[in-house]
Write a structure and sequence with these properties.
This protein is an all-alpha fold. The protein has helices at 33-47, 54-61, 65-68, 75-87, 102-119, 123-127, 135-149, 155-186, 190-203, 205-221, 226-251.
Length: 252
């Protein structure tokens, strides 16, 4: 959880007791929280979190930095609003659909979350920084919980199963996003970068032996492109986790 300037724990923009800023006369025209949040997401996607600031956002919106303070108190507020806006992109299955297979719904949720983490590389550090109690985040959590409960696990095992699946997805999506950002910085495609990296590893005396030992496993994985290899590994790992849930249900 983020901390305030005096070192105390920061709450959440979603726990504000007072009326939202911008709800009184005299505020800058043409602005509202929704527009500010959308611009924040665009800037974070384009430039990353390191370059994000109130001043940079104000320039994007063609207003003064002070104008933004009618609507939010701090940059943390903006980041938390952007985080929840991103969660709003998730396509959620209907957990009350009795005809749906919980396994397929869980796979769909995991795939959506992975894609979100890759699409917004700034999301994973923010998800670990804030409370994640915005309306879109809560909607996602509620659907995940209901889908996993339908698997038939005892109540005390539901949160553990959710952690197993979605901590895996969080890690996988974060590493994938970092890899794609690193390749973009080089100007190479993901496949070009991968081939160059593997060539360097294979030629270096310190890593060549490890590479030879791993080559058979890498070949068996299949996939002609980096994207195909990542997709195949993700699906297989997710299947292992779902099989684990099924095994725990059968164990009773």
């Amino acid at each position: 959880m983020a901390r305030t300037g005096d070192g105390s724990a920061r709450g959440s923009v979603w726990l504000e007791a007072r009326t939202r800023r911008g709800g009184r006369g005299g505020q800058p025209s043409g602005l509202d929280r929704e527009r500010i949040t959308a611009a924040s997401v665009r800037l974070l996607d384009a430039e990353g979190m390191a370059k994000f600031s109130m001043r940079r956002l104000a320039a994007e919106l063609s207003v003064t930095a002070m104008s933004l303070y009618w609507y939010v108190d701090t940059k943390d507020d903006l980041l938390e609003l952007a985080l929840d806006a991103a969660y709003g992109e998730l396509r959620l299955p209907d957990p009350e659909d009795d005809g749906a297979d919980w396994r397929e719904q869980l796979r769909a949720l995991a795939g959506e979350y992975r894609a979100l983490l890759v699409r917004h590389a700034w999301l994973s550090p923010l998800a670990g920084r804030y409370l994640n109690i915005g309306p879109n985040s809560l909607a996602f959590s509620r659907v995940v919980q209901r889908v996993v409960r339908r698997a038939g696990l005892p109540a005390h095992g539901v949160t553990g199963a959710i952690s197993a699946v979605f901590q895996f997805v969080y890690g996988y999506g974060t590493v994938e996003a970092h890899f794609l950002a690193r390749t973009a910085d080089t100007g190479l495609t993901a496949d070009q970068y991968y081939r160059q990296a593997m060539s360097l590893v294979a030629e270096d005396p310190g890593t060549a032996e490890m590479f030879r030992e791993s080559r058979e496993l890498m070949a068996a994985r299949g996939g002609d492109t980096v994207g195909e290899m990542m997709d195949r590994d993700f699906r297989f790992a997710l299947d292992l986790l779902i099989a684990g849930i099924e095994a725990m249900v059968a164990r009773g």
